[in-house]
Design a protein that fits this description.
Helix content is 12%, strand content 35%. It contains four helices and 24 strands. The strands form six sheets. A four-stranded antiparallel β-sheet has the order 1-24-23-22, with no helix packed on it. A four-stranded antiparallel β-sheet has the order 2-3-4-5, with no helix packed on it. Strands 6-7-8-9 form a four-stranded antiparallel β-sheet, with no helix packed on it. The N terminus is likely disordered.
């Protein structure tokens, strides 16, 4: 607010200043309104670096849990959970040699149950295996002995928990003395499951107490959501940047920046240029092959990945496909579909690039990040020279967009 001057000169001066101020406000508003608009200045560029890991005969390349375990001296290990056998494979990342096969028991005194939902390896004596049958997590050592079991039935407020998992794109995180775990849309909530399902929980390893997060699944489902469904309607991925969690939901264009305690939430626009329309499918074929075909054709958003070395984020995107009935849709789904793109966001979540990958060559479901860059598997079953006995990765680096 400006005071009125008596002189004509003063009035003219203030008039000019007010117009300049108005222009400045307009400029600021313009910049603010356009700050979230994509600026495609970078790409993920393929390099000549390719690494190969020989697979055990007790697994296939359809690995669901892939992660990096790093020792205090900086030595990195690639950790894979077999999709068939009760085995965990630990590879030396510098040589790509298998260092150890950790065999765990399904039954008996050391039994962790008939099926686990991935693995979180903290060190050689602390490996967490979440059960897919009951809400509990087993802790084993590298000899396969069960050292502890962590049950989680409900929290102090009575929120009922279901099973958790630790898989590629949705891992468990050990932060100080607490395990941060994913929860899916919760059928134990009955009619309230669409609106009241928490995205996850944390378990205090000292007290054994579990607490559901306040942040619930953004409701994109109809109130009557139930079976039949494709199984991707409630798909969620998340990463942790050392301060906050970032969530990506399959049928939501936005990302969600969430404080560690999950009490503060900020929506971030992160729309792909390769998805024109995003809708949850309302007609599901009863035929299994046709339903799997729809899963492989439906556009949606996939995993969110944090690259701590470059302080950027990668968001995987699945464009709409039109596939022939001759395809093996089960194999295609387990290979990360046919095509995908990756959105690149800077540390402030501005879109700075998006790269569309060639069809039937790379695996959107198998990747990891190192100081070198982003490694993406090229062990796609439709690639002409694909070797089923190995899992191979190509290095991609961020470069200027052409």
């Amino acid at each position: 607010m400006y005071l009125r001057c008596e002189s004509t000169l003063g009035i003219l001066y203030l008039d000019v200043m007010n117009k300049c101020l108005l222009l400045l406000v307009v400029c600021i508003c313009f910049v603010s309104c356009n700050s979230n608009k994509p600026h495609y200045i970078t790409d993920l560029q393929e390099t000549n670096t390719r690494v190969t890991y020989v697979l055990s005969e007790n697994t296939t390349s359809y690995i669901k849990s892939l992660s990096i375990f790093e020792e205090q001296d900086g030595k990195g290990h690639l950790v894979m959970a077999s999709n068939n056998a009760p085995e965990i494979y630990v590879y030396d990342m510098s040589s790509q040699k298998l260092e150890k096969t950790i065999v765990y028991q399904r039954e008996g005194a050391d039994g962790v149950g008939p099926k686990v939902g991935g693995v979180l390896m903290v060190n050689w004596d602390c490996i967490y295996l979440p059960s897919l049958f009951v809400p509990e997590i087993s802790q084993i050592d590298s000899a396969g002995h069960r050292k502890n079991v962590i049950p989680f039935i409900s929290d102090d407020e009575g929120y009922p928990f279901i099973m958790t998992r630790s898989v590629t794109g949705a891992p468990m995180y050990l932060i100080e003395d607490e395990l941060y775990c994913i929860q899916t849309v919760n059928p134990r909530l009955g009619k309230d499951m669409v609106t009241d399902s928490s995205v996850g929980m944390k378990i205090n390893l000292k007290t054994g107490g579990a607490e559901a997060f306040d942040f619930c699944y953004p409701s994109k489902l109809s109130p009557g959501y139930n079976s039949p469904s494709l199984g991707i309607e409630t798909k969620v991925s998340r990463c942790y940047n050392g301060r906050d969690f970032i969530y990506s939901f399959a049928f939501d264009e936005d990302l969600y920046l969430v404080s560690k305690d999950h009490k503060q939430v900020r929506r971030i626009p992160a729309r792909s240029r390769y998805i024109d329309e995003l809708n949850i499918p309302d007609k599901i074929p009863s035929d299994f092959k046709l339903a799997t075909k729809q899963m492989c054709e439906q556009p949606f958003y996939g995993d969110i990945i944090y690259d701590k070395y470059r302080e950027v984020y990668y968001r995987i995107v699945y464009p709409r496909e039109n596939l022939s009935l001759d395809e093996s849709f089960s194999d295609l789904w387990q290979s990360g579909r046919s095509r995908f793109s990756i959105i690149i966001l800077d540390k402030d979540f501005h879109i700075i690039g998006e790269t569309l990958f060639p069809e039937n060559h790379y695996r959107s479901d198998l990747y990891y990040v190192t100081s070198e860059g982003l490694f993406i598997s090229d062990s796609h079953y439709k690639k002409p020279d694909n070797d089923e006995d190995v899992l191979s990765f190509r290095l991609f680096m961020i470069g200027a967009s052409n």
